[in-house]
Amino acid sequence: xxxxxxxxxxxxxxxxxxxxxxxxxxxxxxxxxxxxxxxxxxxxxxxxxxxxxxxxxxxxxxxxxxxxxxxxxxxxxxxxxxxxxxxxxxxxxxxxxxxxxxxxxxxxxxxxxxxxxxxxxxxxxxxxxxxxxxxxxxxxxxxxxxxxxxxxxxxxxxxxxxxxxxxxxxxxxxx
Length: 175
What we know:
The chain is built from 4 helices and no strands. The chain is mostly helical. The protein has one domain (12-27, 38-156). The longest helix is centred in the middle third of the chain and has 32 residues, at 88-119.
Protein backbone atom coordinates (compact mmCIF):
# COMPACT_ATOMS: atom_id res chain seq x y z
CA UNK A 1 0.00 0.00 0.00
CA UNK A 2 1.42 3.34 -1.00
CA UNK A 3 0.90 6.46 1.11
CA UNK A 4 -1.44 9.19 -0.04
CA UNK A 5 0.37 11.79 -2.10
CA UNK A 6 -0.22 15.29 -0.83
CA UNK A 7 -0.04 16.58 -4.40
CA UNK A 8 -3.06 14.47 -5.37
CA UNK A 9 -5.06 15.90 -2.48
CA UNK A 10 -4.15 19.47 -3.41
CA UNK A 11 -5.04 18.95 -7.08
CA UNK A 12 -8.35 17.34 -6.11
CA UNK A 13 -9.25 20.15 -3.71
CA UNK A 14 -8.24 22.89 -6.15
CA UNK A 15 -10.15 21.35 -9.04
CA UNK A 16 -13.29 20.95 -6.99
CA UNK A 17 -12.96 24.47 -5.62
CA UNK A 18 -12.98 25.88 -9.15
CA UNK A 19 -15.86 23.64 -10.24
CA UNK A 20 -17.89 24.49 -7.15
CA UNK A 21 -17.20 28.20 -7.54
CA UNK A 22 -18.50 28.04 -11.11
CA UNK A 23 -21.64 26.15 -10.05
CA UNK A 24 -22.37 28.36 -7.04
CA UNK A 25 -21.79 31.46 -9.15
CA UNK A 26 -24.39 30.23 -11.62
CA UNK A 27 -26.99 28.88 -9.19
CA UNK A 28 -26.49 30.79 -5.92
CA UNK A 29 -29.89 32.48 -6.08
CA UNK A 30 -31.65 29.10 -6.42
CA UNK A 31 -29.74 27.36 -3.63
CA UNK A 32 -31.20 26.91 -0.14
CA UNK A 33 -29.48 28.63 2.76
CA UNK A 34 -26.44 26.86 4.13
CA UNK A 35 -27.03 25.89 7.76
CA UNK A 36 -24.13 26.34 10.17
CA UNK A 37 -24.17 22.69 11.24
CA UNK A 38 -23.64 21.19 7.76
CA UNK A 39 -19.83 20.83 8.06
CA UNK A 40 -19.92 19.51 11.65
CA UNK A 41 -19.87 15.78 10.70
CA UNK A 42 -16.52 16.37 9.02
CA UNK A 43 -15.25 17.99 12.19
CA UNK A 44 -16.47 15.07 14.29
CA UNK A 45 -14.74 12.62 11.95
CA UNK A 46 -11.55 14.68 12.23
CA UNK A 47 -11.67 14.60 16.03
CA UNK A 48 -12.38 10.86 16.02
CA UNK A 49 -9.49 10.10 13.69
CA UNK A 50 -7.12 12.33 15.64
CA UNK A 51 -8.05 10.55 18.87
CA UNK A 52 -7.63 7.19 17.14
CA UNK A 53 -4.22 8.22 15.82
CA UNK A 54 -3.09 9.32 19.28
CA UNK A 55 -4.28 6.08 20.88
CA UNK A 56 -2.83 3.84 18.19
CA UNK A 57 0.49 5.70 18.25
CA UNK A 58 0.84 5.25 22.01
CA UNK A 59 -0.14 1.57 21.87
CA UNK A 60 2.33 0.86 19.08
CA UNK A 61 5.07 2.79 20.90
CA UNK A 62 4.43 0.83 24.11
CA UNK A 63 4.50 -2.42 22.18
CA UNK A 64 7.77 -1.54 20.42
CA UNK A 65 9.38 -0.42 23.68
CA UNK A 66 8.33 -3.60 25.46
CA UNK A 67 9.64 -5.79 22.66
CA UNK A 68 12.95 -3.96 22.38
CA UNK A 69 13.49 -4.29 26.14
CA UNK A 70 13.27 -8.07 25.84
CA UNK A 71 15.80 -8.26 22.97
CA UNK A 72 15.85 -10.68 20.07
CA UNK A 73 14.28 -10.40 16.65
CA UNK A 74 10.97 -8.55 16.29
CA UNK A 75 8.96 -11.66 15.38
CA UNK A 76 10.41 -13.73 18.21
CA UNK A 77 10.01 -11.26 21.07
CA UNK A 78 7.21 -12.02 23.50
CA UNK A 79 4.70 -9.34 24.31
CA UNK A 80 4.54 -8.49 28.02
CA UNK A 81 1.19 -9.00 29.71
CA UNK A 82 0.68 -5.32 30.59
CA UNK A 83 0.92 -4.20 26.94
CA UNK A 84 -2.14 -4.84 24.82
CA UNK A 85 -1.10 -6.19 21.43
CA UNK A 86 -2.34 -4.49 18.27
CA UNK A 87 -3.79 -6.68 15.58
CA UNK A 88 -1.94 -6.16 12.28
CA UNK A 89 -5.19 -6.46 10.32
CA UNK A 90 -6.69 -3.67 12.43
CA UNK A 91 -3.77 -1.41 11.56
CA UNK A 92 -4.21 -2.21 7.86
CA UNK A 93 -7.92 -1.41 8.03
CA UNK A 94 -7.26 1.83 9.87
CA UNK A 95 -4.69 2.78 7.24
CA UNK A 96 -7.28 2.25 4.49
CA UNK A 97 -9.80 4.31 6.47
CA UNK A 98 -7.23 7.08 6.83
CA UNK A 99 -6.53 7.13 3.11
CA UNK A 100 -10.23 7.26 2.24
CA UNK A 101 -10.80 10.00 4.80
CA UNK A 102 -7.96 12.05 3.34
CA UNK A 103 -9.61 11.98 -0.08
CA UNK A 104 -13.05 12.76 1.34
CA UNK A 105 -11.59 15.64 3.31
CA UNK A 106 -9.87 16.98 0.19
CA UNK A 107 -13.14 16.78 -1.76
CA UNK A 108 -15.06 18.71 0.88
CA UNK A 109 -12.23 21.19 1.37
CA UNK A 110 -12.48 22.00 -2.31
CA UNK A 111 -16.26 22.22 -2.24
CA UNK A 112 -16.39 24.51 0.81
CA UNK A 113 -13.52 26.61 -0.55
CA UNK A 114 -15.44 27.06 -3.81
CA UNK A 115 -18.52 28.20 -1.91
CA UNK A 116 -16.40 30.56 0.19
CA UNK A 117 -14.72 31.94 -2.94
CA UNK A 118 -18.13 33.03 -4.22
CA UNK A 119 -19.85 34.24 -1.06
CA UNK A 120 -16.81 35.84 0.57
CA UNK A 121 -16.52 38.75 -1.86
CA UNK A 122 -20.31 39.20 -1.85
CA UNK A 123 -20.54 39.97 1.89
CA UNK A 124 -21.59 43.58 1.39
CA UNK A 125 -23.87 42.94 -1.58
CA UNK A 126 -25.90 39.89 -0.55
CA UNK A 127 -27.76 39.45 2.71
CA UNK A 128 -27.46 35.64 2.73
CA UNK A 129 -23.72 35.79 2.09
CA UNK A 130 -22.95 36.61 5.74
CA UNK A 131 -24.25 33.35 7.20
CA UNK A 132 -23.16 31.35 4.16
CA UNK A 133 -19.61 32.70 4.51
CA UNK A 134 -19.46 31.57 8.13
CA UNK A 135 -20.73 28.12 7.18
CA UNK A 136 -18.28 27.85 4.29
CA UNK A 137 -15.36 28.95 6.49
CA UNK A 138 -16.35 26.39 9.11
CA UNK A 139 -16.57 23.81 6.32
CA UNK A 140 -13.06 24.58 5.10
CA UNK A 141 -11.72 24.29 8.66
CA UNK A 142 -13.53 21.02 9.41
CA UNK A 143 -12.64 19.42 6.07
CA UNK A 144 -9.02 20.57 6.34
CA UNK A 145 -8.94 19.15 9.86
CA UNK A 146 -10.18 15.83 8.48
CA UNK A 147 -7.38 15.79 5.92
CA UNK A 148 -4.78 16.57 8.60
CA UNK A 149 -6.14 13.94 11.00
CA UNK A 150 -6.31 11.34 8.25
CA UNK A 151 -2.74 11.99 7.16
CA UNK A 152 -1.58 11.76 10.78
CA UNK A 153 -3.47 8.49 11.25
CA UNK A 154 -1.94 7.13 8.06
CA UNK A 155 1.55 8.05 9.25
CA UNK A 156 0.93 6.29 12.56
CA UNK A 157 0.04 3.10 10.67
CA UNK A 158 3.35 2.98 8.79
CA UNK A 159 5.71 0.18 9.73
CA UNK A 160 9.09 1.55 10.79
CA UNK A 161 12.17 0.05 9.13
CA UNK A 162 13.73 -2.89 10.96
CA UNK A 163 16.83 -1.80 12.84
CA UNK A 164 18.45 -5.20 12.28
CA UNK A 165 18.20 -4.87 8.49
CA UNK A 166 19.77 -1.58 7.33
CA UNK A 167 19.14 -2.38 3.64
CA UNK A 168 15.37 -2.40 4.06
CA UNK A 169 13.85 0.73 2.65
CA UNK A 170 17.05 1.67 0.80
CA UNK A 171 16.83 2.00 -2.93
CA UNK A 172 19.44 0.91 -5.38
CA UNK A 173 20.95 3.77 -7.32
CA UNK A 174 21.06 3.40 -11.08
CA UNK A 175 24.44 3.39 -12.16
